Structures are given as structure tokens and as C-alpha cells.
Amino acid sequence: MKAILTRTIALGALAGSLAVPHAAVLAQDTDPQSAATDLDEQLEEGYTIVVTAQGRTQELTDVPVAVNVVSSEELRNSGTSDIRELNQVAPSLLVSSTGNEANGSARIRGIGTVGDNPGLESSVAVFVDGVYRSRSGNALSELGPIDRVEVLRGPQGTLGGRNSSAGLINIYTAPPEFEFGGYGAFTYGNYNAIKVEGGINAPLGDTVAARLDGVYFTRDGFYNDVINDVRVNDRDRYLVRGQLLFEPSDMISARLTADYSKKDEACCAATFVQPDFAPLARLSDDFPPRDGRAPFDYPGGPTPALTSTSNPIIPVLLGLGQDPRALTQDTFNRDIYMTPGRSFAGETEDYGVGLEVNWDLGGASLTSITGYREYSNTQASDTDYTQVDILYRAPGDNAGAREFETFTQELRLQGEAFDGRLDWLVGAYYANEQLELRDNLRFGSQYGRYAACRLAVLAGVPGDTSAAGCLSAGTRAFLADNPFTVAVDPAFGALTPVVIGAFDRLDQISDLGNAGGGGFNQSSENFAVFTHNIFEITDRLDLTLGLRYTNETKSIDASFSNDNTVCPAQQAALSPFLGASPALDPLLGGFITLSCLFNSTSELDGQSINDTRDEDALTGTAVLSYKPTPRSLVYASYSRGYKAGGYNLDTSALKSPVPTFASLGGAQALASDLQFDEETVNAYEIGGKIDGRDWTFTMAGFHQEFSNFQLNTFNGLFFVVQNINGCSNLVGGPDSDSDASSTTGSCAADDVGPGVTATGVEMELSLRPARFLNATMGITYSETKFEEDLVGSDSGAPLTDALRLLPGDNLSNAPEVTATASVSYTPPIGDSGLTGLFYLNTRMTGDYNTGSDLLYGKEQDGFILVNGRVGVRGPDDKWALEFWAQNIFNQDYTQVAFNTPLVAPQQTYSAYLAEPRTYGVTVRAGF
Questions:
Q1: Over 90: is that where the pLDDT of 376 sits?
Q2: 576: burial class by Cβ within 10 Å (0-12, 13-18, 19+)?
Q3: CB contact set of 806 (below 8 Å; sequence gap of 6+)
Q4: Is 181 helix (H, G, I), strand (E, B) or coil?
Q5: Per-residue pLDDT at 484
Q6: Is residue 74's pLDDT more than 90?
Q7: Hey, how many other C-beta atoms are within 10 angstroms of the C-beta on 875?
């Protein structure tokens, strides 16, 4: 077996990992030299794409699963260094990052985890060398040399270690080999990009091989902070990975990997969205900006931009020092105007070890994959993305800190029975994850004045940004003796002194909030047992049945440290008057809300909470597959998928800011309100695969129904997590989930059903039309949408009013049509031994909305991205000189548009921009 493995590695991957068919790999009586000769013959006859999508080594055309296989050559040509670049070669996949690269999100068929809350697990699980990465954002870093990547589409509820409801990304790094060799590469590009890569591989005797790889990458930032004269969204990172391969006999092999990576980078800046890019980023044409319905109104007429002075919050920003250029410049002008002294500095460490053991026991084979990983990230930020000092996180150990410690163990036992007609597999999986969150989010030095002026705008009171409480002496006199309200004199009746006092208290908030201590600690324990069995009914007809039982236990404990004494003072002063004058309740509630935003209050200082949840899930799959010919396959399948529930690790979710914690029984009494339920999916799929001599075609049609879909949305003030479900009979009528109330639109529990569906078709074609010429094409059509009538839980609770645009629309970042293509031409250059390289790939994406609340103005028009690489390579690839470009045509597009924190009414939007054009040259050498 060792000789076969070594020969396979040496030959490398073409359209995927190349290997002999499954039976030949596992056969123990096969002569190694004969096996290698057979492999050479197969390579002459055509490509054999091998995957491990079903926990076994199988040819692609034998696997009744929708899967993309991306080879090392394709990855190198496309410039892939982390999972984001997979977008260019996998049409059903979309990977993006938002306010922190640790929050990167992967979506498959339009389904993925939304938002920046680490309490939500990834809908698309990521594994590197069989070891689970706790969140998909953890893979947004240098990966070093990669052997291949498998992207499994659809729920993975039976195999694959951790359950995932949308899909799975398997990354296999280049393993050690029993041949001495090494390589090095140097890259220089625009933005002063420098990347240095190197590695060495060596046999340490006949049974042990070792490999060491390293990558260092630095680059200037894409944004220019004009105020602080620094670059943001830069790169400064490195990776070191060491491996040992131990093969004492043909019966057993063990591969040990250890890696360490670090990033010291400033991330992630944003710019204001302007109508020149998003035509609907305009003021409402039906409601005034102060009206809460304005952000949800389609701006049909030619109204001013959201960032124009016609939006009454914009003069407040300008009055407090905002540079007007930030509000008028093009969306993709990467000059940013941040608060003086504020920073986006961040630091990430990621390291761990993995051990995979494969042992042929004679009648069965045992696989054990053990992993231990630690991941930590801190990220400072000018959290409001303006020059006004409203919200901030200072650099340091508590700056939005998240730390994961994860231990995983997977065991699989696989064999055959009934003369090979049954290929059986049983296994178990265990994971223990410890997550710690710490945060130092604080109100900035100008928060109180800004918040007071914002409420003055809402109340229609003349504001003065230079005056205490945003109220000038003249305004105070006006309010106390209003000549225009004879019937109600003064302006707010008997409560006028109360209102003026509220303005003054709010104005006192300056550099208050999280005091740096405490935080959330979450402990998660996952145990699963599973079986996956392939029954050969006839020589051409197979039935696959899989079943998995999962138990998930999560517990949290949290402690709080907060010095915002204005919040309890405001609650004490204003709560007695709530209800006394219903017309003033929104204003009084607004004072308390902005004084206690995020439940930032000294009332929580020194308090702690704890809670535990436990859930069980039964998932599985059933597949009927038929091979009309030895090189083709058709199949129909059903899969049940699952993603664990958990906790919204955000104090905002404990309660509304208005009541005190004491009035609700204390923080501990509210701890269970942080819970959200598990997400489940029923998926149906039909597909086919044909493997010709010089081409491969795959096709799949799918329909997926998601219940308790986990949605995390930032509404401009705080994050909201809800389990989205559908309803067949809304109480209040079919439009009651789309009005301005969070109390209407409930549903009887018996009428609750799936809230999200994904229906579509995928097609992929790989071609080798001529010698040295390879091409791939893929297209995905997916209608991934919310049901027409929605509720916010499986018990039928109403949908929050911030999500009123969701019913019947497509999900965010879910274009209906996506297509990818690539072409690679590597001809010899005469008889010199040199070869040329010409490589292009492209991704075409249809229109979609990038905001999880689907507000107008967050739309992204369809676009096309093109990457390319040309060069020359020496004999046997001993050296290469390559010129490359990413985003060749400098296509402008956004990753996510979001509500600019607190910049309302009417709500303005900011956007995290995608990378501009980059280009450079790479020199490689190897031996």
C-alpha cells in the first residue's frame, strides 16, 4: 500500500486527486509495482477523479453526492490562499467576510450562517485534513500547499464529523512523500504585496517521511484612513506547518500534522453606500425620514441620497465634526474618515495538531482522526465607521475577543460483507469546544451629545450640537414656554422638565460601557454515532442508507463589568412616567434605549448568569443510484440535516433596554432568553454524472426545506437572532408579518412549517479538448427564498418588525444564477523542455441583496470577476516565472451592506467592499 500511495502522490492531482479505483487501493494482494503500472495506464486512458465524500476513497462517478473537486494545480493557478478564492471555481459556493475576518461566512446554494455572532455555528462546516475548524472564518488564512479541496453541497447529516445543514468544505493539504525535495516561491504585487513561500520534504528512513512548509505574506491596506494617516485592511500574516508520515507496514499508516499561524492586521473598514452604486440608497418618497416606516419603504421617486443633508441625522454628524467628503464621495472611494486615535488593529492566532491513523485489520479498516486546536482573535474598531466618536473598541486583549479550544475525535470502521455486496461503515464522533468571549465596546466621547441630538431630531426639537443636551438656551426657553402650543404649554406639558432632564443625562455619556472584565464562556459537548452502508442490489443498482444520532449539550456562564451609571439614572428618572402620557412614551423610551443601548448598564456590574441546553437529533440519508454504463451514474436521494442550536452571546438579547433587570427578576432569570433552537433541513436531490475519455459532466437538481432557520441581523442598534419558520395561516392575515409591529402575525404551532426553501439545478463540465488544454464550466440556478408568511419561532411567535421585508423574498447573498469557467493551456515551447502557461477563470454572479434584513439600498447588481495567470515553466517544473492578476477588470462590488450603527433616522448604510484589482509576479523553484 505504501508504494501505491507514494506513486499516487508523485503523479499529483489533475482534475482532482488522481488515484487507482477504490478496489485497487484497498486490495492487499496487489503487487505495488503492478499497481503503479496500472495507474500509469489509467492516466493514459483518461482522468480518474477520486474523492472521499462518503468516508471512503471512491471515483467521482461512483459517488451519488453533489461535490466539487478542485485540484492542487487549479488552486495554484487561481491564486488560492484561503477558502475565499474557492468562489472562482465552485459556482454554488460563496465565501465572504464582514466586520472581522474571524466572522467569515461560507454559503452553499444560498444557505449560510449570517452575522457576526460566534454563538451561531457554521452552516457550511470546514475541515482541514479531517479536523473540524470551529467556525468557517477560522479558515480565512494562509493554508499553504494544498493537495485538493472537496466542496460537498447540501446537508451533511450522516458523515463528515460535525453536522452541517448547508454543506461541507474538505481541505486536504499536501502530505509528506518518500522522496527528498523542496521548493520556494517569491511574489511581489501592487499595494507592496510580498509573499514568501518555502518547504522541504525528506524521507527519514524507509518508514517515516517529514515535511515542513511555511508562508509569509504582507501587503498594504486597501483603505486609506485620511484622519489617522494609516492603511486599513492590510495583510501581515504567516503560517508554519510540519508533518510526519509513518508507514511501518502495508497495513498501517499514521500522519501527524502541527501548524501555527498568526495575523497582525487592521480590519475591517467600511464606506457609506451611495446611490451611484445602489440606486435605492435614497430617502423614502412616502414617509418623512423621522417616520419609523421610512427605511422599509421602496423609494420609487428621485429622492435625495440617504447621506444627504435632507436626512436630518446628517447635519448632526457634520455639526460634530464629520468630514463631508465621507458622505458624498463614491461608494468605492477607499478614503475613510475615522475618529482621531481610533484603530482597527487586530491579532489572530491559530494553531493545533492532528493525527490520522489508518489501520487495515484484514476484514475491515479502521480510521481514527484526532484533533486539538486553539484559536484566538481580537479586533479593535471605530465601531460606528464615522469621524464622530460614537462607539469604539480599543486595541487590546478584550477587543471583541473570542477564543476557541476544540478537541475532536472521529472513529470509522469500514469493511465489506456478503461477498462484497455490502460496503458497511460505522463510526463515532466526539467534540468538546470551549469558547470565551470578552468585549470592551464602549460609548465614545461624543456619544452622549450625538444621541441627544438624534432624539432631538426624532422629537422635532431644534438641536444644537455645540450645546449641552443638544439644547441651546433659546431652545430650552422655547420648550418651557412654547408660543405655538397654547393648549399644551409648555411643549411637552407637565413632563417638559422631565424631558429636558433626560436630554441632559443622555449628554453625560462619554467613554462609558464595558469596563474590560467579564464576558461569556460557552462549553459545548457533542457526541454522535453513525452508520453509512452501500448495498449492491445488482451490479449496477446500489442503495445507500445512512443514519446518525447526535447529542449536543451547551452551557454558558457569563459575568459582566460595566461603568455606565447614566443608564440606571435614566431608568429611575423616566420609568415612573411611562404610560402617563402615551404620546410621549416613544420619546421617553428612546431616552432610556439610547442610554442603555446593548444593555450597557452599571446595574449589570458584578452580576453573572448561567444556563444549559441539551438537544438530540436523528439525521441520515437514503440514496438510490444506478450506473447505466461503467462510467456514468444517476441517483435520487433524501437527506436530513441539522445544525445545533445555542446561545446568542450578546447582552443585547437579554431584554429590551427600557425595563431594569431588577424589575424582571434579575439577569439570571433572563439567561434562557439567549437560547435559539436547532436548525433542520429536509433535502431532496436527483442527479447524474458521466465520465468520458476527455470530459466529465455532472448535474444535480435539488429542493431543500429549512425549519428554524437561524438568522442573525443587525438592525442599526443591536443584533437580533430569530429562528425563521413559515406559517400556513397567520393570525391577523397574510400581511401581518410585514407591518410595523413585532406583536402581530403570530401563528398556531400546528400551522408552523419550513421558513426557507432552496430549489434549483447545478451543472458542471470538465473538458480536455486537446493535449495540454483543460477547461471547466459550471452554472448554478438556485431560488433560495423565504416563505410568503413567516414567524420567528417554531411555537409561532411573531417575526420581529426589523425583518418585515423578508417574507417571499430571496435570502441575502443568494443570487439566483451563478456561473464559473476556467481554461488552462500548458503547451511545450519547442524542444527546449520549457512549457508555457495561460490560465483564466471567471465568475458571473446575478443580482442579490447583501443585507440580511433585505432593506432597499443594499442591493448588489450582477457582475463578472476575471482572474488570470501567464508564465513559463522550466523542465519538469523545476522553476517557473508567472505574471498574475486578480479581478483583472477592477470590478467594484460589495461583500455586505449593513445599517451604519446609530446613524438614523433615516437609516444610512455602510458596506464592506470586496478587494480591488491586484497583480504581480511570482518566481518559483523546486528540486
A1: yes
A2: exposed
A3: 724, 786, 790, 799, 853, 854
A4: strand
A5: 55
A6: no
A7: 11
Kindly state the percentage of the chain with pLDDT values over 70.
93
Q: What is the pLDDT of residue 141?
A: 80
Cα 234 to Cα 222, 691, 885: the distances in Å are 7, 43, 18
Helical pair 2-11 and 32-45, crossing angle rounded to 10 deg: 30
The pLDDT assigned to 49 comes to 67
Residue recorded with cell 477563470 = 841
DSSP 20-42: --HHHHH-SSS-HHHHHHHHHHH
The DSSP symbol for 677 reads P
HEC string of 729-772 equals CCCCCCCCCCCCCCCCCCCCHHHEEECEEEEEEEEEEEEEEECC
Across all residues in the chain, what is the average pLDDT?
Answer: 90
Spell out the residues 6+ positions from residue 150 whose beta carbon is closer than 8 angstroms to its own. Answer: 51, 52, 53, 67, 68, 69, 70, 168, 169, 170, 172
175 and 189 Cβ atoms separated by less than 8 Å: no
Name, in order, each residue with C-beta under 8 angstroms of 282's C-beta and a sequence gap of 6 or more: 275, 299, 302, 303, 304, 305, 306, 857
DSSP letter for 463, please: P
**Total Cβ atoms within 10 A of residue 438:** 21
More confident residue, 99 or 674: 674
Cell numbers for 789, please give them: 408568511
Are 67 and 53 a contacting pair, CB within 8 Å? Answer: yes
Q: Is 870 helix (H, G, I), strand (E, B) or coil?
A: strand
CA–CA gap between residue 487 and residue 483 (Å, rounded): 10
How does 473-489 read in b/e, with b if 16+ C-beta sit within 10 Å?
Answer: eebbebbeebeeeeeee
Strands 208-219 and 193-203: antiparallel
Distance between CA atoms of residues 381 and 102, nearest Å: 14
Would you place residue 336 in the very low, low, confident or very high pLDDT band (cuts 50, 70, 90)? very high
User: For residue 144, what is the DSSP state?
Assistant: -
- Look up residue 99 and give its amino acid: G
Q: Is the dihedral of CA 706, 707, 712, 714 positive or negative?
A: positive
pLDDT in tens, 216-275: 999 999 999 999 999 999 999 999 999 999 999 999 999 999 999 999 999 999 999 999
DSSP helix/strand/coil, 262: strand
**195 vs 405: CA distance, rounded Å:** 29
Q: Which of 598, 579, 597 is nearest to 588 (CA)?
A: 579
- For position 43, what pLDDT does the model report? 40
Pairwise CA distance, residues 917 & 17, whole Å: 31
CB 869 within 8 A of CB 849: no
Residue 36 above 50 pLDDT?
no
pLDDT greater at residue 62 or residue 758: 758
What is the value of pTM for the model shown?
A: 0.91
Location of C-alpha cell 451514474: 633
Classify 123 as helix, strand or coil.
coil
Q: What is the pLDDT of residue 445?
A: 98
Cβ proximity of 162 and 170 under 8 Å: no
The answer to whether residues 489 and 478 touch, using CB atoms and an 8 Å cutoff, is no
Q: Grid coordinates representing 97?
A: 467576510
Q: Residue 48 has what pLDDT?
A: 61
Q: What is the CA radius of gyration of the chain?
A: 29
Instruction: Check if the beta carbon of residue 526 is closer than 8 Å to that of residue 429.
Output: yes
How many residues appear in the chain? 927
Which of 440, 461, 721, 494 has its CA nearest to residue 590? 461
SS3 60: helix
801-841: pLDDT as tens digits: 899 999 999 999 999 999 999 999 999 999 999 999 999 99
